[in-house]
């Protein structure tokens, strides 16, 4: 008999599993030890970042900047990297076009001499920034969540050896959704009226890749995509597409557009005349802006992430520290991404004997080798790079080992007015609460 998500046996197993990772997320102690054991140097290390400080994605970009600065502050307090202090510089990548991101990367290299670029995501660049960064030979770590990274890296692993994607590709979001839905169905937690999935797809490549993967994977788990429509980005008027969706009466509505304000409008308009459909939206509902705009209509919506802070000792400690630094209105989840990247890089560089400036290919290769060699326990799970992709892989969709991969986390909005509206419902052993039938179901 299959274990229920919140059975006593599974809860006990989860607590034991999570306890084993306690205290390993923060690398300041390790860095301090490495610094003490090596000859101290002086000087500074410029660290760069391209983040949307303005535009529709600034809600995350500001937190990416905050996470980087918080990590640099802590690392400097622990002695920097072998005595040298970090100096972060964040340039505005605005709407995240290829031109904007590439220009920012060149400026960080040519004017600021950045030894590494520690990034959140720039989903519209489509790897355009890779070549100027590869030419400089510096380390570049990002969360672009793009299968295009796999393709670029595998096209020339030698050239792109210092470019890392610190989360799984968006493709795995699409692969993972039918897995999650089947788990809820097969455990009797959800009894769908049919096997239909209605796909609403944002016009960006990120959203298209996810929708294509949902369509291709759904039949393996007893679902079928019965409706598809692509919508422009951004969009706030959802009436026409919702009328078509309602005519389908699908078991699941999957919206792969990801701007939180746009998705909040989708949910408000859906709630005016809902169907007995689970509503899954890509990423946006995880940000508090979604619940603040949608209000009670948000309750019951599901979303997922691979960089969500885990409800364990490490995750809770980071969230508390982040809120103490930036206030409880700050979004700790995106901040955790750049925070963790910075620590992983700092440890890898310290163990390699220091950082490498632009053009120092030999030293930066040593750091890249260390990033692949040593995993890092972050607030969102284990940051470990698959050598064939220079990217993280997800658990349980690809890797069956929760200790060696980043968990693909399924959340449900439980209380839109709470400081943390979302609660984790999948996968074991990370889940904290049970799935609930959404309130709009009749």
Automatic annotation (TrEMBL):
Gene giving rise to this polypeptide: braC
Stated family: Belongs to the leucine-binding protein family.
Keyword Transport annotated: yes
GO biological process, one term: amino acid transport
Keywords from the UniProt entry: Amino-acid transport, Plasmid, Signal, Transport
Record-annotated Leucine-binding protein domain positions: 44-388
Domain of life: Bacteria
A Pfam family assignment: Peripla_BP_6
InterPro entries: BCAA_transport (IPR051010), Leu-bd (IPR028081), Leu_Ile_Val-bd (IPR000709), Peripla_BP_I (IPR028082), TAT_signal (IPR006311)
Name of the featured protein: Leucine-, isoleucine-, valine-, threonine-, and alanine-binding protein
């Amino acid at each position: 008999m299959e274990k229920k998500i919140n059975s006593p046996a599974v809860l006990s197993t989860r607590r034991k599993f999570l306890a084993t990772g306690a205290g390993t997320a923060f690398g300041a102690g390790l860095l301090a030890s490495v610094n003490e054991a090596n000859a101290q140097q002086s000087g500074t290390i410029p660290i760069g970042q391209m983040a949307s400080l303005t535009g529709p994605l600034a809600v995350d970009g500001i937190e990416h900047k905050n996470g980087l600065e918080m990590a640099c502050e802590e690392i400097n307090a622990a002695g920097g990297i072998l005595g040298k202090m970090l100096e972060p510089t964040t340039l505005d990548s605005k709407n995240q076009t290829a031109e904007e991101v590439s220009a920012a990367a060149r400026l960080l290299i040519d004017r600021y001499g950045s030894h590494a670029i520690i990034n959140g995501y720039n989903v519209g660049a489509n790897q355009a920034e890779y070549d100027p960064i590869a030419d400089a030979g510096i380390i570049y770590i990002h969360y672009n969540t793009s299968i295009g990274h796999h393709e670029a890296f595998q096209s020339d692993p030698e050239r792109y050896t210092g470019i890392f994607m610190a989360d799984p590709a968006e493709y795995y979001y699409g692969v993972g959704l039918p897995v999650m839905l089947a788990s809820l169905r097969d455990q009797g937690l959800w009894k769908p009226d049919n096997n239909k999935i209605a796909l609403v797809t944002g016009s960006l490549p990120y959203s298209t890749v996810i929708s294509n993967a949902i369509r291709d994977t759904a039949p393996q788990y007893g679902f079928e995509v019965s409706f598809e429509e692509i919508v422009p980005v951004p969009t706030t008027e959802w009436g026409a597409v919702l009328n078509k969706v309602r005519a389908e009466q699908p078991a699941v509505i999957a919206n792969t557009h990801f701007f939180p304000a746009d998705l909040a409008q989708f949910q408000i308009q859906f709630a005016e005349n809902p169907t007995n459909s689970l509503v899954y939206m890509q990423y946006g509902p995880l940000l508090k802006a979604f619940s603040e705009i949608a209000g009670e209509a948000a309750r019951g919506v599901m979303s997922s992430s691979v960089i969500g802070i885990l409800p364990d000792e490490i995750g809770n400690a980071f969230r508390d520290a982040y809120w103490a630094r930036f206030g409880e209105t700050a979004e700790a989840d995106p901040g955790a991404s750049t925070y963790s990247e910075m620590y992983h890089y700092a440890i890898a560089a310290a163990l390699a004997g220091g950082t490498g400036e632009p053009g120092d290919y030999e030293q930066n290769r040593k750091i890249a080798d260390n990033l692949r060699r040593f995993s890092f326990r972050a607030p969102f799970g284990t940051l470990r790079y698959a050598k064939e992709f220079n990217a993280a892989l997800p658990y349980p969709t690809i890797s069956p080992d929760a200790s060696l991969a980043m968990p693909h986390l399924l959340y449900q909005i439980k209380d839109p007015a709470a400081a943390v509206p979302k609660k984790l419902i999948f996968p074991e052993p990370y889940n904290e609460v049970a799935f609930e039938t959404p309130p709009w179901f009749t």
